[in-house]
Amino acid sequence: MDAVVILLLGLSCLLLLSLWRQRSGKGKLPPGPTPLPIIGNILQIDTKNITKSLTNFSKVYGPVFTLYFGMKPTVVLHGYEAVKEAMIDHGEDFVGRGSFPIAEKIDKGLGVIFSNGNIWKETRRFSLMTLRNFGMGKRSIESRIQEEAHFLVEELRKTQGSPCDPTSILGCATSNVICSIIFQNRFDYNNQNFLAMTKKVNENAKILSSPWMQVYNALPALIHYLPGSHKTIIQNRDYVGSYILEKIKEHEESLDVNNPRDFIDCFLIQMKKENKNDMLAFTYENLTVTINDLFGAGTETTSSTLRHALLLLMKHPEVTVKVQEEIDRVIGRHRSPCMQDRSHMPYTDAVLHEVQRYIDLVPTSLPHAVTRDLQFRNYNIPKGTTVLISLTSVLRDEKEFPRPETFDPGHFLDDSGQFKKSNYFMPFSIGKRICAGEALARMELFLFLTTILQNFNLKSVVDPKNLDATATVNGLVSVLPSYQACFIPV
């Protein structure tokens, strides 16, 4: 009986605390739907399609509104003007990384994606500098991608035109590019450790977008100790992390401070330099998390975009024909595509941009946070408040893109058929937290896709009209249903 009384008292205290915290913010934060005690607005949100819910809320409360995921308020920015004003005009105020409980549990505030403050600044600065030194955005990394594109083509040839799910092959290709920078070498597409790691990265992306994880992130204290897929995420990260630790030890044993071979060497050298400066960014733990971040981001987002692109091209064969005609005209069949070709291929460039716009891969980007008490559009936003930016609302803006729900490369072409830039194109997010690997991803998307279409015709196993390119889940990322394709040698 005493235990029941204690439990009821505890729940009552939580309820009163929730009500007090939510009411204390009223009149200061932007408007929004009334939250329930403890769980907030989670029952009013479609956890399978968060962006649809955000759009509906914006119609009622405007472009800046507040939602409660559990007891914590989250300010949502919806539409180009609000997003630009916050992330560009007030970029320094919104540079923090917002609450993401599962990542906080795994990464412990380290790495380049979910860190904050000096650790984030130092890790991002070092990572960008090192990636550029190893060729990101330059000719040297272009040759690595071209080499990997050759291996990709050879792997696709092995299918002999039979139906296959391209997920694993594309994951290996994109992962090998980032691996060549981090670990110095690439991996064979049949390497079991390599396949296991790319599989676990892909699995984590799906889990992070699941309705269960949206509930977990809203109520982590209640759910963390329960069984569920959040345990799988932790296990998968530990698996990849243990492999990374092995590689770090191997690098330490053969390190030449005068001749760094890759990202790990550069980080280890920096650790020795900063040893006496008490720099928390340069530790073994932060190195492991940072590599995990780079490996995951460098593998999953680009391979998912390519997988979406192939599906859309099969669904729209008339678009594929035009791209291949442009490839024949500009590149031909006897040399590899290079980045200089892109400026002479406006239609292909438009197709790549439209793929990224249409698939809306990361609908709300990653959560931001304000770094100081802030007045924004006459609302008071306390320091540390999580901020979500709806990239969907920008990428699907009908004023900029007349048919936002339709896949149409014409959105990025002018009347004369030349490529047309758009300020609304922000699939890599926007502001000071923009994706560090944007330049690398752009090169991979162009070189891999043009190389595939130079060597193969795509064939669907079903009528193209019946192909479904709609994401099955729209959470952290847009998850595409599995499909099979035939790669018919040209």
UniProtKB/TrEMBL annotation:
Its cofactor is heme. PROSITE patterns: CYTOCHROME_P450 (PS00086). One of its GO terms (cellular component) is endoplasmic reticulum membrane. It is found in: Endoplasmic reticulum membrane; Microsome membrane. It comes from Chinchilla lanigera. Keywords: Endoplasmic reticulum, Heme, Iron, Membrane, Metal-binding, Microsome, Monooxygenase, Oxidoreductase, Signal. Its EC number is 1.14.14.-. The lineage of its organism: Eukaryota, Metazoa, Chordata, Craniata, Vertebrata. Residues 1-25 form the signal peptide. The gene is LOC102006693. Cytochromes P450 are a group of heme-thiolate monooxygenases. In liver microsomes, this enzyme is involved in an NADPH-dependent electron transport pathway. It oxidizes a variety of structurally unrelated compounds, including steroids, fatty acids, and xenobiotics. This is Cytochrome P450. Its main location: endoplasmic reticulum. InterPro entries: Cyt_P450, Cyt_P450_CS, Cyt_P450_E_grp-I, Cyt_P450_E_grp-I_CYP2D-like, Cyt_P450_sf, Cytochrome_P450_fam2.
